[in-house]
Amino acid sequence: MIRRLGWSDVPVATPAVPSGDLRLHRSLTSGLTRRADDPPAVFWGVGDRGPNVSPRVAARHYGLPQLAPLAALDGAKIMVAPGIGPALARFRLEADRVVLEAVAPLRAADGTPLTGLPAPEWPGAETEPVFSLDAAPLGACVDGADCEGIAPGPDGRFWVAEEFGPSLLLVDEAGVVHRRIVPRGSEGRFDGSAVPVSAELPAIAARRRLNRGFEALALDRKAGILYLAFQSPLAHPDRAAHVAGDLVRIWALDPHSLTLLAQYAYPLDPAEAFARDRLAGAVQQADVKISEMTVLPDGSLLVLERLTLSTHFYRVAPDAALPSHFLDPDHRPTLEQLGQTGCQAQGLTILAKQRIFSTDDHAEICGDLEGLLVLDDGRLLLSNDSDYGTEGAATQFWLAAPDRPLPTG
Length: 409
Hints:
mainly beta, 27 strands, Phytase-like protein with esterase activity, four-stranded antiparallel sheet, Tachylectin-2, Chain A, Phytase-like_dom
């Protein structure tokens, strides 16, 4: 059973561009979660840094050819409406539709808004160049965040994973960010932030590839474990390791102290395995990513792995932790250099995957899926990232029964 749910996007801005007004709407479903004490129909979402596109898209779709040369800059983005940043959202699931109950833009306790601008330059960390629609450099911001994952946190608050630091944010229902936790040694990158910053995460996290930082969060309430997944293989020790990499790190953390409990290696599918993308054109291994995960009642993880059009859902049991030396930035070969083949040769165990569902078998489901919840009856609630409508996409919610039954309880 596959069913698209009713939903209406919320307009937020109409920047003027030569090709006509660009109609932007709220994008609030980069990650989804539920808390144990929430009403049964209520769930929460988080939106990413704000409306942005590549220079090529801006040139082609918006009638702004003067922006095309900016594509030569690695990772360059056009911030279409810099005043719109990440936000927390409260939703309610009804029989055949999703209703938006509240939106809370993220901000510091003193009211300083979190922006969608990247973090400042820092040794060993990649930072993307960003520009306005008139090609003016926008620079960096110590209070910038690109939020992608969300999970219940202490005292009814939420942990939010973001890509720029990468970092974890402790956020309350009103959108107030109480803490920002960053990799050790990178705290100086956020000097002057309106949000209290502490460096408590392994330093190796700063080796994330540009725009591929922390992506997915999930809380195992029974075991007291917060799972955190990177989006892609680290660029460790260099960019080449990321490009060729086929293992993504998943961390198990104490949900209160954020002490690292274990590290796991999740094996990515080969790019050619994503049928809808393969049929649409050339595919690259570096584009395969994790976008979401959730904890099942038996303690296993359901992981959303995707390219663009195709999405695969895998169940994995976090039962094969890596040796601790893979957290040492100086250890060689790195996990990314070894890959699946190298780990097998060294007798290292990576997570075993069981496919639960694939949108390659259900062409009606849209691409760019980033939100995932498992409902009490075992059905999947899925959502896409509409990118604020910058390329004409709309937010979509889907209900889907997995091909394999999931554990309940």
